[in-house]
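in:
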């Protein structure tokens, strides 16, 4: 019987469940393990897409429901053991290439608090957040869940790429300076 099992092993290799192993930020648990939540990729890269993919090379990038590890360079550096989270490397990825690395939920757009403890914001879907019918409501009640913590979330599509300019403009025009 053991000989038969050894003989069949090459035909039926062990099935491995794909799951994120090292950094679980912007993930959620499902029956197959940790997978990326929609908030992991709910933003644009600040840097150019081709630049991000060149400094964070991978064959598969974070995607909603995906369980593959994000590129290790997104959170680790050559000076740390493989799989160890290096906060400087991770901070650079969040600042420049959050979508490529699956860190959108770690950006400023998701850094505030949802307003109402009685509102089940964790159940809100991406479709609800961006729905014209519900967007104003969720912007007020669930800004952290929906990624609406930035003051200029919908005023200019370039806003996330130059927050300093837009905050200066807002301050200047709001105070009349």
């Amino acid at each position: 019987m053991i000989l038969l099992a050894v003989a069949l092993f090459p035909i039926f290799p062990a099935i491995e469940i794909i799951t994120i192993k090292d950094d679980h930020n912007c993930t959620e648990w499902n029956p197959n393990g940790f997978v990326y939540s929609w908030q992991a990729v709910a933003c644009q890269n600040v840097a150019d897409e081709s630049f991000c993919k060149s400094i964070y090379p991978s064959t598969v990038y974070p995607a909603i429901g995906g369980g593959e590890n994000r590129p290790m360079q997104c959170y680790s550096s050559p000076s740390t053991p493989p799989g160890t989270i290096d906060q400087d490397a991770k901070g650079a990825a969040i600042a420049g290439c959050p979508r490529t690395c699956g860190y959108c939920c770690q950006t400023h757009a998701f850094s505030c608090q949802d307003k109402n403890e009685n509102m089940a914001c964790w159940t809100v879907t991406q479709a609800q957040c961006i729905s014209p019918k519900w967007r104003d409501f969720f912007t007020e009640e669930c800004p952290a869940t929906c990624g609406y913590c930035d003051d200029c979330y919908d005023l200019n599509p370039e806003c996330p790429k130059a927050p300093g300019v837009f905050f200066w403009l807002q301050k200047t025009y709001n105070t009349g300076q």
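note: Helices lie at 2-8, 49-55, 87-96, 98-101, 126-130, 135-141, 143-146, 163-175.
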